[in-house]
Write a structure and sequence with these properties.
The complex is a heterodimer of chains A (about 300) and B (about 260). By secondary structure, chain A is of the alpha/beta class. Chain A has 2 domains: about 1-220, P-loop containing nucleotide triphosphate hydrolases (Rossmann fold), CATH 3.40.50; about 225-280. Chain A has 10 helices and 14 strands. In chain A, helix 3 crosses helix 4 (about 110-120). The longest helix of chain A has 16 residues, at about 165-180. In chain B, strand 1 and strand 2 (about 65-70) form a beta hairpin. Helix content of chain B is about 75%, strand content about 0%. The longest helix of chain B has about 45 residues, at about 15-60. Chain B has helices at about 15-60, 70-100, 105-110, 115-130, 135-140, 155-175, 180-195, 210-215, 220-230, 235-265; strands at about 65, 65-70. Chain B contains 10 helices and 2 strands. A two-stranded antiparallel ribbon of chain B has the order 1-2. The chains are: A alpha/beta (about 300), B mainly alpha (about 260). The interface of A and B includes residues 65, 77, 92, 129 and 145 of A.
């Protein structure tokens, strides 16, 4: 059963093609991480799903509703947590939630607000204006606002972008709780750790389309092998080693001041991993950089 | 993969629940800033009323068309209060909510479409404006204006006119690129409309070409309707009311069209 089905979706803005032949199925009950660098088309995909962008080509279905024709019906069943904080800052916490409970046609607004306050752990701050809350509380409220109508599908658009590590961890705990309740989640992110930590499956998006998809462990095994060797040396030496490794069929990626030889356990054909290399288990970051050519965050 | 079955509920256009939801957001916000808005919306027309009505009335003009000048201005000032409390908040409010606060992105992620969003914003502004619009009339009672049954229709006239100017303001917010371009809108539209509405002097004294422009000025129609309510209606007033309804309808549809283009990629 697919909560989201996108087939051959194209969306251009003038000369820029933001989404370029996107095919994406999100089965019900999973958390799919849409992982890609900035400009990969993740936010445009989110806007297409909420009816705020209309595809030039392709078909979109959300929870059985065809977009854009039945977008309103689909939106009634999904919750959206935006990348940018767009809470009403002068209004109280509970009024922020109550407004969205009404917009989602919730029958018992008071009960829905209470439940959302429990999720955000903000019961004791319900009468406070939003601009009196800490950054972490505001993000929790933003998440709770997207859940006030108990949606079957939640779109999380870069849910922790720009947050400090402590707030990010708080948010991850809340998203984990949501997963455990069986809510379908589509989460766009450009943080590798976030995708690895939260997503059942990861779809790597690059230049407007999905270039690889699978469980994080499967993606690592498929694209990066078992281990990665990081080598720190002067630039000339690194260039030499890179050329040698690549000529013997190994994949090499930049890793800050170092190079990383991905799948270094497969080294052969006369190339030996230097003894001073730091060897570690291959990660999703290795996969991301190999596939997209972009440095990970 | 099979898609999950769609629920039976089909959503219609212009759902009252969606409009009420958007308005409830406006009400929640208004509760936090109503004092400042009310203060300026009441004080501004009062300053004009006192400056022109008492100033000119005491020195240059005794009465106009048989009406004491302060009562002539006081009834006309309803239109000034309406345009100031509808066009300007719609312009600035819409621009700020869209470009700076990303409020509309959140609302449109809910089951609300642009038509409902714009309609709710216009209705809320018009309700507010129809209340603020009555203030100059009430103040003029203290300068001898006699209450008349026709005045009970003034909130309705103000409401319909404010709907039109709110639609105009939302349209302007959708088409300008930067907030400072509202200076052009104010200088080119709002100030001239306000000055040639017949508030401070009868438009019959204006050059013929300007009279033609004044006659298609919705504010002038409102001024005449308010004076009709205070001093007696004329058969023409029905046409004036129809003109205001048409103005509100046209700006409503144009505002929806422009906001749709602005909000949906």
């Amino acid at each position: 059963m697919a909560a989201i089905e996108l087939n051959g979706v194209v969306k251009s803005f003038g000369p820029i093609t933001a989404v370029n032949g996107l095919d994406l199925d999100v089965p019900e009950g999973i958390c799919l991480g849409l992982l890609g660098p900035n400009g990969a088309g993740k936010s445009t995909t989110m806007r297409l799903l909420t009816g705020q962008a209309i595809a030039d080509e392709g078909t979109l279905r959300v929870l059985g509703h065809e977009l854009p024709r039945q977008s309103k019906e689909a939106r009634a069943l999904m919750g959206v947590v935006p990348q940018l904080d767009n809470l009403d800052v002068d209004v109280t916490v509970e009024d922020n939630l109550a407004v969205y409970a009404r917009l989602y046609r919730v029958a018992d607004v008071g009960a829905a607000v209470d439940k959302a306050l429990d999720i955000a752990r903000l019961q004791d701050r319900r009468k406070d204006e939003v601009d009196k809350l800490s950054g972490g509380m505001r993000r929790r409220l933003l998440l709770a606002r997207g859940l006030v109508h108990e949606p079957r599908l939640v779109l999380l658009d870069e849910p922790t972008v720009g947050l400090d590590p402590q707030i990010r961890t708080e948010l991850w705990t809340l998203i984990d709780q949501l997963r455990s309740r069986g809510t379908t989640i589509l989460m766009s992110t450009h943080y590798i750790e976030e995708a690895e930590r939260l997503a059942d499956e990861v779809a790597v998006m690059h230049q407007g389309r999905i270039i690889s998809r699978g469980r994080p462990a499967d993606l690592i095994a498929e694209h990066a092998g078992r281990q990665t060797a990081e080598i720190y040396a002067p630039p000339d030496r690194l260039a030499e080693l890179r050329a040698e490794a690549e000529s013997s069929g190994l994949r090499v990626r930049p890793a800050g001041p170092a190079i990383a030889i991905v799948g270094s356990e497969r080294a052969s054909n006369g190339f030996a991993v230097p003894a001073d290399a730091v060897t570690r288990a291959a990660t999703l970051e290795d996969v991301f950089v190999l596939l997209t050519g972009e440095e990970a965050e | 993969m099979n898609a999950v079955p769609a629920p039976a509920r089909t959503m219609r256009r212009l759902e009252p629940a969606a409009i009420a939801g958007v308005m409830s957001r406006e009400v929640a916000n208004f509760r936090t800033y109503w004092k400042g808005t009310t203060f300026s919306s009441v004080l501004e027309p009062l300053v004009y009323l006192l400056a022109f009505g008492l100033g000119l009335g005491a020195t240059l003009v005794d009465d106009v068309e048989g009406v004491p000048y302060i009562q002539f201005v006081g009834t006309g000032m309803v239109a000034t209060a309406v345009i100031f409390s509808s066009a300007l908040p719609s312009m600035f409010g819409t621009f700020v909510k869209h470009r700076f606060q990303n409020t509309y992105e959140a609302i449109l992620a809910a089951p609300v479409d642009v038509e409902e969003l714009v309609s709710a914003e216009m209705l809320w502004i018009a309700i507010r404006s129809s209340v603020y619009g009555c203030v100059p009339l009430i103040v003029t009672f203290f300068w001898g204006l006699d209450p008349a049954p026709g005045m009970l229709l003034v909130p309705l006239f103000a409401f319909i006119t404010a709907l039109g100017f709110s639609g105009f303001g939302i349209t302007m917010a959708a088409v300008v690129a930067k907030i400072d371009q509202f200076n052009y809108v104010t200088a080119l539209f709002i100030t001239p409309l306000f000055l040639v509405a017949g508030t401070f002097f009868p438009i019959s004294g204006l050059p013929e070409g300007v009279q033609v422009i004044a006659n298609v000025n919705p504010l002038h129609q409102l001024v005449e309707l308010v004076r009709g309510g205070a001093f007696g209606f004329e058969p023409w007033d029905l046409a004036r009311f129809a003109f205001l309804v048409a103005f509100a309808f046209i700006t409503w549809r144009v505002a929806i069209n422009r906001m749709q283009a602005r909000l949906i990629d």
